[in-house]
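Checklist before submission:
- one chain only
- standard amino acids only
- sequence pasted in full

Submission:
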Amino acid sequence: MADTFEDFETRLRRIGRKRAKLANGYTSVVGKDGLIIVKPRRARRGIPVKGLSLLVCGFFGFKGLLLGHLGPETYNDRLTRLSSGTPIEQAGAAALAPDAVSGWVATRVGPYLH
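Returned file contents:
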């Protein structure tokens, strides 16, 4: 009788562990025999490439829009003033320095902004 109770407790622990794994999401797959198998969804690891690429494209687009709207002379004048400020402002000026990508965006978008 005690052996049956231990088997029951073992089965309950196994079901509890499986339910805990399935709490974070699961996928259902139909096997070759027609049985529906529920597997826990694996946790995503690493850098979200899609979000990171969207952030980089948005940053270069923003720089290009600013450069196209202000013009190269005004943009460089403001960057010069920014680079003479605090270390954080100097880092911002280095990041916002004109480059080939933002220059290309500025030439494409600039005529529509004036």
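Reviewer check: The first helix runs from residue 2 to 22.
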